[in-house]
């Protein structure tokens, strides 16, 4: 039994391991770990306290996948609910669909009894307002909701350091079943309704008991274009080792043309329970913990460079 996570999953990994130790499923462990990250106001990339869109609204995305059944659930652009990973799991288990977005996702969350709350913390609001006011006339900022050229302002306010950030969890339970999940508040100051790779199964995450699982954080648009998480699993299906599969998926990203090519971080697990982490930035880390470990281990991700092109 093992849990693998992005480093910001440190607040939730021991809870995920506890679920596994008590005989819980990989799906339950992934959800439990991610919920604690979503509740952490100090993490501005996920859940409560996440950075808002250009209008100052926090929109959350999440997805979860069961590697035993290949069932999935995802939600996108959800407002007013702090735990999109739980809503995504409910989509997977209660609906004939795999994804809900916007008002439909919020309606479903209400029907399922999830609690509404204001997701924008004072700290996140201050950072958002300060960034926009750097370039935006005071009158425009005051009337932002009526501004009809949001696309221009989104491009101006784009910050490569805040255009990425997600929490990834992968777990394998006592039965050998694998699950993965991701949750994010997305690209800071994004255009309303923007979805990255997090809710897109095959881009942001993918799990298949037969081969393994993978999850991504970084520039979500890149992972969508390259189907990065699914590629890793497929490369393992083709006979590559875990390290070879992750390397090949990272190299695939070099073929992407155009602007807004930035960073990518991966975590992955093979069917035998071996973990891996890869990144296009040196010295980035990930964490993992087996059921036999008292504490998680922080390990350095393997570096595979990608030429960044921004703006």
Characterize the structure shown:
The chain has 311 residues and is an alpha+beta fold. The protein has a single domain, classed as Glutamine Phosphoribosylpyrophosphate, subunit 1, domain 1, CATH 3.60.20. It is 32% helix and 23% strand. It contains ten helices and 13 strands. The chain has an eight-stranded mixed sheet with strand order 4-3-2-6-5-1-11-12. A five-stranded mixed sheet has the order 7-8-9-10-13, with helices on one face. The longest helix has 14 residues, at 122-135. It is globular, with a radius of gyration of 18 Å. The relative contact order is 0.17. The mean pLDDT is 95.
Please mark out the parts with pLDDT under 50 across 5 or more consecutive residues, or reply none. none
Q: What is the helix fraction of residues, given as a range?
A: 25-40%
Q: What is the CATH class designation?
A: Alpha Beta
The main pleated sheet reads as: 8 strands, mixed
| CATH H level, superfamily name | (Glycosyl)asparaginase
* CATH fold group: Glutamine Phosphoribosylpyrophosphate, subunit 1, domain 1
Number of helices: 10
Number of strands: 13
């Amino acid at each position: 039994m093992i849990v693998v996570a992005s480093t910001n999953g440190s607040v939730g990994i021991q809870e995920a391991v506890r679920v596994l130790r008590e005989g819980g499923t990989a799906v339950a462990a992934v959800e439990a770990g991610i919920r604690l990250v979503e509740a952490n106001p100090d993490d501005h990339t996920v859940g409560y306290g996440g950075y808002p869109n250009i209008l100052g609204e926090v929109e959350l995305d999440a997805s979860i996948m069961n590697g035993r059944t290949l069932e999935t659930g995802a939600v996108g652009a959800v407002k007013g609910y702090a735990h999109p990973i739980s809503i995504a799991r409910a989509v997977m288990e209660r609906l004939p669909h795999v994804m809900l977005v916007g008002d439909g996702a919020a309606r479903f969350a209400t029907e399922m009894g999830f609690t509404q709350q204001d997701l924008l913390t004072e700290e996140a609001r201050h950072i958002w307002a300060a960034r926009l006011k750097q370039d935006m006339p005071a009158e425009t900022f005051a009337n932002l909701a009526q501004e009809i050229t949001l696309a221009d302002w989104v491009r101006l306010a784009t910050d490569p350091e805040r255009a990425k950030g997600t929490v990834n969890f992968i777990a394998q339970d006592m039965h050998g079943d694998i699950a993965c999940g991701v949750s994010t508040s997305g690209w800071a100051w994004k255009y309303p309704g923007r979805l990255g790779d997090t809710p897109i199964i095959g881009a942001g995450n993918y799990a298949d008991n037969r081969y393994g699982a993978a999850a991504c954080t970084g520039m979500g648009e890149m992972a969508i274009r390259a189907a990065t998480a699914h590629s890793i699993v497929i490369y393992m299906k083709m006979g590559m080792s875990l390290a070879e599969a992750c390397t090949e998926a990272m190299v695939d990203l070099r073929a992407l043309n155009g602007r807004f090519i930035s960073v990518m971080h991966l975590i992955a697990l093979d069917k035998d329970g071996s973990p891996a982490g890869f990144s296009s930035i040196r010295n980035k880390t990930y964490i993992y913990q087996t059921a036999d470990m008292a504490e998680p281990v922080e390990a350095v991700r393997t570096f595979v460079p990608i030429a960044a092109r921004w703006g």
